[in-house]
Every structure is written in structure tokens, then in C-alpha cells.
Amino acid sequence: MKVNVEFDCSPEEARRFLGLPDVSKANEFYVDTLINTMKGTGNLEQLQDMIKQFTPMGEFGMKMFQQMMETGALAAFGKGGKTSN
Length: 85
Known about the structure:
Blueprint: H1 11-18, H2 24-39, H3 44-54, H4 58-77
């Protein structure tokens, strides 16, 4: 037997329903800081140095983060599951 349940709600409603914290203010601060930092970069080398600061483990850290996100998606949606409509 296969049962599909579909919820029609906004991201904010889903966040509250799942009991997740509201991190919108932290996200706004992070984005504003990132934008202001990027405005201060005058050339490609400065931009690369800034990106290295955000990813202290470099390419390995980014691959590890990507793998963690893929593992979480597989756990949440199942192997071969659809993640969009």
C-alpha cells in the first residue's frame, strides 16, 4: 500500500508546524554582512580570499557539506524520491 499526503502551506506555516526556530533575523544579518563584505572586494583575488574565509576547509569542506546535504535529502525523501513538483 502506498499513501501520499500533500500539505499546501507557506514555508512560514511549515516552520511553525514542525516547531523549527525562526532564524530569519540571523539570516538577514548573515546576508547583509556577506553583501557588505563583497562590496569591499575590488578584484578576483580579494573575492577568492573572502570565500576561503567562509570555507575554512576549502574544497574538502564543501564536498563534505554537499555529501551531508545529499544524505539528509535521501533520508527525508527516500532513495529516488521526488523533491519537487
